[in-house]
Design goal:
It is a single chain. The chain is α/β, with parallel strands linked by helices. It has two domains: about 130 residues, ATPase, nucleotide binding domain (Nucleotidyltransferase, domain 5, 2-Layer Sandwich), CATH 3.30.420; about 170 residues, ATPase, nucleotide binding domain (Nucleotidyltransferase, domain 5, 2-Layer Sandwich). It has ten helices and 13 strands. The strands form three sheets. The protein has a five-stranded mixed β-sheet, sandwiched between helices. Strands 11-10-9-12-13 form a five-stranded mixed β-sheet, sandwiched between helices. A hairpin with a 3-residue loop joins strand 1 and strand 2.
Length: about 325
């Protein structure tokens, strides 16, 4: 009987999952609402529902293990969610132990950005590299660092918080309590904030629209039409991302940086500034070898990463 694992991506809005073979083939997909406002019990019930739906669909196959990505601080080796922005009541919650009560297969959890990096390293943009760094640019900025084919979690599982590299010591206040974090300038939220700060500019431009109408997508669409101020926002965002990447290059001498997340759609408008800034802030011999590329797996990166962790733990 051919076996498979399940890779789960637990988001604040949806639970996305897929049955994945050891070769990286997706056998079946499921997506349902997470229903966070209905509480922890409902979320767990929905996770179990997704798993059972897949098992019923693949009765002729054997489920061997399950991996799941969750945003926040995760203790991978203990199965504990220490803190998650999408699940505020999951404080030091032993999700692994809870799930074991209803499952007859191993269950693993990790930070969702870490798993996106793992997925890209398995069958995506990083598959031909031993070491690389991935940025996920969405509502916030997540990150994952892969060193010698292994995710680097640090001593306590909290490594890779790339969105909280300090760019401006006295910059905008971040939700983490620090000021001037990369996330405040290179995320969709940061892009919108920078646009709203320009909203008083007395010219026909996207950023002079009512603040309630400004979104990351409208700024992107305006940039595509050549709007000067929208282009300036993406250029600034690109420079700041380049500063963060240059810091990592100078510390770890990593050559490949993969950029994913929804903001990556605006690649043409920020990437040139990013690459230029990296060159300015690194030694020539390291900077000229740096490759900055787009992620290949899109929203599936986390699913593949979760599946890979489950497969790897079984080996």
């Amino acid at each position: 009987m051919k076996d498979y694992v399940i890779g789960l991506d637990l988001g604040g809005t949806n639970i996305r999952a897929a049955a994945v073979t050891r070769e990286g083939e997706i056998l079946h997909r499921v997506k349902i609402p997470t229903e966070v406002p209905k509480g922890r019990k409902r979320v767990i019930a929905n996770i179990l529902k997704v798993i059972e739906t897949i098992r019923q669909e693949l009765k002729g196959f054997k489920l061997s293990a399950i991996g799941m990505g969750i945003p926040g601080i995760i203790f991978f080796d203990k199965g504990i969610v220490a803190q998650s922005p999408n699940f505020p009541d999951w404080i030091d919650f032993n999700l692994g132990e809870r799930m074991s009560k209803d499952l007859d297969v191993p269950f693993y959890i990790d930070n969702d950005a870490n798993l996106a990096a793992v997925g890209e390293g398995w069958i995506g943009a990083g598959k031909d590299f031993n070491s690389f760094c991935m940025f996920t640019l969405g509502t916030g900025v997540g990150g994952g660092i892969v060193l010698n084919k292994n995710i680097w979690r640090g001593e306590y599982g909290m490594a890779g918080e790339l969105g909280h590299i300090t760019i401006y010591p006295d910059g905008h206040l971040c939700n983490c309590g620090n000021r001037g974090c990369l996330e405040q300038y290179a995320s969709a939220t940061g892009i919108v904030r920078m646009a709203k700060e320009k909203s008083q500019i007395p010219r026909p431009t996207i950023v002079s629209a009512p603040k309630s109408q400004i979104t990351a997508n409208t700024i992107y669409q305006s940039a595509k039409k050549g709007d000067t101020y929208s282009l300036e926002i993406f250029q600034k965002m690109g420079r700041i991302l380049g500063i963060g990447i240059a810091d990592i290059v100078n510390i770890l001498n990593i050559e490949l940086f993969i950029i994913g997340g929804g903001v990556a759609d605006a690649w043409d408008y920020f990437a040139p500034s990013t690459i230029e800034e990296i060159g300015k802030r690194t030694y020539r011999v390291t900077g000229e070898r740096v490759k900055v590329i787009k992620a290949k797996l899109g929203d599936d990166a986390g699913i593949f990463g979760a599946a890979y962790v489950a497969i790897n733990e079984l080996s």
